[in-house]
Design goal:
The chain has about 280 residues and is mainly beta. About 10% of the residues lie in helices and about 40% in strands. It has a 14-stranded antiparallel beta sheet with strand order 1-8-9-10-11-12-13-14-2-3-4-5-6-7. About 40% of the residues are buried.
Amino acid sequence: MSNLLSPAPNRPGHSNASLNRGAGLTTRAVWVGLLCLSAVCGFGQKDPGPVAAVPDPATAERQGRALADELLNRRPEQELTRSAILKVRPPNQDWRETPVRVTVSLTPTNWTTCYEAAGASQAPPATRLVVAYQPGAPNRYELHEAAATNSPPNVLAGNQTMIPFAGSDFWVADLGLEFLHWPTQRLLRKEIRRGQSCSVLESLNPRPAPGAYSRVVCWIDVDTGGIVHADAFDVEGRLLKRFAPKSFEKIGGQWELQEMEIRNARTRSVSRIEFNLSTP
C-alpha cells in the first residue's frame, strides 16, 4: 500500500512532538478496542535503519507474545462516549459520511466498546457492534444490523470478524485488535519509525482464509506502548491495508486521537474516523 500514500501534512497547531506525546493514550482510550495508532504524520519519509535485532526465533516468539498480552490487558482508565464521523472514499468518488457513536463501558472484570453507525433519521442505528474484552480470554463480537431488528445479534469469531463495519475499510477485527489474539506473535526487531524507537511485532493468523489477513506487522512505541503504524497482508503475502493516525488534540491535559485512517491497497479506497473531542 506504500504506493498509495503521499506525505500527510500536520494540521495547524499540531506539531510532530504533540502527536508523539499522544502515543500512550491512544491505545488505552480510543481503539479502546479500535486500532488507535500513535504516530507522527509524514508517510513519505524514509525511516532510519534497524537499531536492534531479536537474536533467535524462540526469543522472538516469547517476547512477541509478552508484548501482545501487555497491549491486550490495557484496561481503559475510565468510561467514555465519543461522537465521530466515519468517512469512506471509494476510488474516483466523493467522500461518504456516516455519524458514529463510540461508547466504552467498564465492569470490575472486563470492559466493552460499542460502535453505533447511524441509519435513517429517527431510526435505530443501521449497524451496532459490541466488542467485549476480558484479560486472558478471547474477545466476544456481537454485530447487529437494523435490517434484522427482530433477530439476535450475529456473534462473530476468527476470520468471521474480517468483514466491513458500516461499509468502511475498518473491519470488525480491526476494531477489536483481533490480530493480537492470534497464537503466534513475533518480536522481529527494534527500529526507528517516524522518529520513534519502536518494537516491530508480527502477528500470524493460524487459519487464514481467502480475503482475510494472514499476518499483521505493527510498530509499537518502546516508551509509551502506542502503536505507531500497522500493515496488514492477505493470504498471498500482498499488502492489503495500511493503518495510521492523522491528528491529536489536547483535552483536559491529555492528548486524544482525533483522526485515524485506513487505506486499502486492493480496492484503493480510503476510510477515516474523525472524533469530535469537544462534545460527547
